[in-house]
Write a structure and sequence with these properties.
By secondary structure, the chain is an all-alpha fold. The chain contains 4 helices and no strands. It binds zinc ion (ZN).
Length: 76
């Protein structure tokens, strides 16, 4: 079964359309059983909607995003 770290990564990948059918099934099984990840997904959806409306000049570059994600991974 997918763990919470894998589930949060899958939620991010799903938003980018990079999740396979099997990964989506595994994610949905995890979300049914894990309320914190379900909440993360709900918050992620809200943040994604907000970011879609943010002008490009205020968005982070991919390298900055990866730096943040790596820092989070180090802290978890
Ligand atoms: Zn979880």
């Amino acid at each position: 079964m997918m763990n919470c770290k894998e589930a949060t990564r899958a939620i991010e990948k799903k938003a980018e359309g990079k999740l396979s059918f099997w990964q989506r099934v595994q994610l949905n099984v995890h979300l049914v059983m894990c309320k914190p990840c379900w909440r993360f997904k709900a918050h992620w959806n809200i943040i994604s909607l907000f970011l879609e409306k943010t002008p490009a000049k205020h968005k982070l570059s991919n390298s900055d995003k990866n730096l943040i994600l790596n820092k989070i991974d180090d802290e978890i």
